[in-house]
Amino acid sequence: MINLYFHTSDLAKRKMLNWFHDQKIDVQTRNIMKKRLTELEIRHLFLLSDNGSDDLIAIHSKAVQEHVFDKGLTFNQLVIAVYQHPKILKNPIVFNEQSLVTGFNIEDIGIFVPSKQRKRERLSLLGKLYTAEFGKVSGSSSTGKLNYVND
């Protein structure tokens, strides 16, 4: 299951939801200001991230600017800070069992497209490319090979 956590309904969140809708991928959404994250859930997000706090904390956000955060915080202190001030997290955060992405970047969120669907899309694109390059496929010959016709 793909989860999307957000704390504000900004453009990145709307783009992310629209992209998942267009891909016909179900996403479970959660406003973390209305239903706060538990400390265990926060730890899980850090576990999924590749670069720890760099992936999750919005260091240039107003929320971080309003609260003095020492770069020397221990992991437990950082978890408590996120628990107390969830707006210090980047927005949105989307994740599944193996991957986590923050913000809206079309290249990054492609990892959430199921592999079978990615393969179908890749084959379709290759078919279009081949047709554009060599012409249309007219069917098979008696040898079982495809015949290509240039228009």
TrEMBL record:
<comment type="similarity">
    <text>Belongs to the ArsC family.</text>
</comment>
<dbReference type="InterPro" id="IPR006660">
    <property type="entry name" value="Arsenate_reductase-like"/>
</dbReference>
<dbReference type="Pfam" id="PF03960">
    <property type="entry name" value="ArsC"/>
</dbReference>
<dbReference type="InterPro" id="IPR036249">
    <property type="entry name" value="Thioredoxin-like_sf"/>
</dbReference>
<protein>
    <submittedName>
        <fullName>ArsC/Spx/MgsR family protein</fullName>
    </submittedName>
</protein>
